[in-house]
Automatic annotation (TrEMBL):
GO terms for molecular function: undecaprenyl-phosphate 4-deoxy-4-formamido-L-arabinose transferase activity. This is Undecaprenyl phosphate-L-Ara4FN transferase. CDD domains: DPM1_like_bac. The gene is yfbF. It holds the Pfam family Glycos_transf_2.
Amino acid sequence: MSTPEISVVIPVYNEEAGLQNLFDRLYPALDALGAAYEVLFVNDGSRDRSAALLREQFERRPDVTRAILLAANAGQHMAIMAGFEHARGQIIVTLDADLQNPPEEIGKLIAKMREGHDYVGSIRRKRQDSLFRTWASKAMNRLREKITRIKITDQGNMLRAYSRSVVDAINSCKEVSTFIPALAYTFARHPTEVVVEHEERAAGESKYSLYSLIRLNFDLMTGFSLVPLQWFSMLGILVSLGSAALFLLLIARRLILGPEAEGLFTLFALAFFLIGLTLFGIGLLGEYVGRVYQQVRHRPRYLIEAVLEKTE
């Protein structure tokens, strides 16, 4: 297979209901670009018929279609990593399979890449998500930017384009847990963003629960910055100084006014606050220790069951 200019990497997890719609819109949109391309689907251990549908699509368009079938669910970002390691194009585009990002918008990213940028992010013009999810995402965006200093306007949008050099740098990393847009931003020299349309999910349900989103943001913040630990250290210093000042105040009060009979519940409240603060600090430290533990085990990030591709 000749080297294409564009590789489109699409992670797929239980998307049986919407895959045909994706096929019907994706290939015409890429054909209209007038450039050599390949579509690289990564089946992330789907439990429905997604793998069978990908195999059928490969048989229909073997010239531009490839499929990687993972043996088990590895997560969206690890599935994209598998796609990156097999992509052949000079421009690599990531796209979700749920059609919330219209495939017709890929052309905007390709045009920006051809202007000389090595990383093009996307910003949803009008999000078609619930109000809570939209608000929570914006709040986490602001918090993440303050902690990591990574300026990504819309971190939840996976429609992005990467140059070959940026993808090669990402492939050289052996992290078992990462956030690809942020990792790419650290390697990019000429990043930019474009505004794209956003649609409601065509079929199926979102694979990201509230817990998954919280988990993802913990990985993002602890994987790219030590600021949370530094903030907590400074908070610990402030609490220690406050406790010392309160201790001195109580001693002075006892010497001047005599022993205090009341204030038991205030003492309980203070104790519970300090205990909660300690537990939070232990949990935060555990996040970093857990990442080190995952890394030193040297387990494979994903297992490939099969690769469907046309051979010369």
